[in-house]
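Replying to the earlier thread about multi-chain prediction with a worked example.

Input:
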Amino acid sequence: MTPTEHGTDPTAAERRDRFLSRRSVIEMRARERAQALLDPGSFRELLGPFDRLESPWLPLQGIVPQSDDGVVIARGELAGKPAVIMAIEGAFQGGSLGEVSGSKIAGALALARRDGEAGKPVLPVLLLETGGVRLQEANLGEAVVAEIHAEIIALRRHVPVIGVITGMVGCFGGMSIAASLCSYLVVLPQARFELNGPEVIEQEAGIDELDANDRRLIWSLIGGEQRYETGFADALIEDDAESLRRTIRDLAVQGVPARHRTEAVDDYRRLLAKIDPTGPLDGPGFRQIWPRGEMR
Amino acid sequence: METLNFEYEAKQPLTRRAHVGVVGSGDLEVLIEPSDKPAANVRVRTSVDGYAQVWKAVLDRFFSHFEHAARVEINDFGATPGTVTLRLEQAGELVKP
Amino acid sequence: MSAAAPLSNRGRTWFDALADGAQRIETGLGSLLVADATLTGERVRLLAVVPDPRNRFPRARHGELGLEEGWALARHIRDAIAADRADAKRPIIAVVDVKSQAYGRLEALLGISFSLAAAVDAYATARMAGHPVVALIVGSAISGGLLAHGDQAHRLLALDAPGVTVHAMGKDSAARVTRRSVEALDALGKTVIPMSYDIRQFARLGLLHELIAGIDADAPSAGQIAKVKARLAAAIADIRVDPGDLTSRLNNAEAKVHRAASIEVRRRLAEQWDAS
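Result:
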């Protein structure tokens, strides 16, 4: 099957072929996602299940640990270029990061930075399927998330750091800050991306502030398409592994952006000043005020 | 969390290792590795206490046709016996010579 | 929601104590205090996030780190970086008493994660540019509030006093989310150290540079303020000798015991990084 070139309408046969060969990323486990992104034969997992680096803290609380603590670190090539995929397993403890899983990510970012400084750039890709810090490891989870932030900020000066949020867990908590620090963010419509989980907002601020069961409302505020349309994500793609791989490849080719979002301080302050916090504002209304493209 | 240990007779060595599954709600992960002991040693860590007999029944059945010297680890988060059997079979297929 | 809980004044108390009459820099926000003060003869930039009942955003009136606070922190840190580009890098001191990030619908819609990330970025950028960055925890340092305001510092210092607590989630919220009682959480914190709300247990994790004892966190005497200033100055001097990055939180005696897995993961990753 020949991939369609950008700007060329696919024929009916090509569209059918692509549909039939589509592979859902959402349905894949973390390990499969990493395998799907790396060039065939190049996948090499570091600190995999048989290294048995588990959480020292979960068994103390009667919680069954996972052999890889819920994060897969895989080196290989992505479209021929050296890459490291850091994939969070959303099915284990909601993808929350503990001491070991967080250290796998922070350590991989640090090694990518070391290689970059030695003239051997490695493309870092974060597959973010996470509720944030693992409450059962609280302060050690928080500490390692801070280390992840530090590593992304240092690393993104030399090589673009690419974040991917697919769903269905989404990206929340301290790792939403990590996503916000990425050079480029790829999202699916099924993604949700926000600092605070809807349940926590409802719990803290009341159901009138936010009804966590109102799925349409949630996605209209923090869903992938909304984030893309308001300039908080760089690419909105369909749920297909090959589309994701090509999108990451194309973003990597653009290199380090001239300015990261978190550096556009005055622009965002100016836009916030336009908002009346006492007036009603919904997803579509916000798109009118902050259409994508205005920020880049 | 309960930890259960089982041991089964082994008749052949193993040359490959395999890992399947995830410790998610209603699921489990299984790790099978070659062992130099002439037995299959199984450690089960499960989030649901009190089902030792059910584990024994499921494992007895699997190991009646899996006769390799292996170190087997199971990390379980409330899977049904059917799911446990499925995962064991998946792992068993992957280490078949 | 603990709207009835008294607002904490510690951030303002300690900001004023350390500023010692130095002129405030206009931030446009009642919730963000910034001043360039003098500490042992050197100019330092102080920053504190404090409660402001008149905050424009209703969900950020009790000392939470909200949309405007994050971007404003970034602005005032970056101003110091720019001003000192060809000059001596003034130390940056985060005075930390933040109960959490702001929780609300507007915050979600308007991208509060980016606001906090902007503050994280600014502090880290200052650190990497050669500014000694120190966090002084005088009250609560919780979750996103800590990540954005203090956690990128070279060194974390905390007062050894009641009400000083570092955690990933406030106790009441954590109790609700985990469906445990507050008492059960406290008990858990005794055996699972990273879950403890006790600052002395936190100190055992190797993340704190110093726990400063003998201080009344709510109403410090002149002598106690002088002591804290001295400890801040010592931390700044220590940073200048060996700045490093956040890995200093792994290279100490406490970390070798309670962050052993963190050290082991990094060691084995480095071993496996290049294919053998």
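Chain C is about 40% helix and 15% strand.

Feel free to reuse this layout for your own posts.
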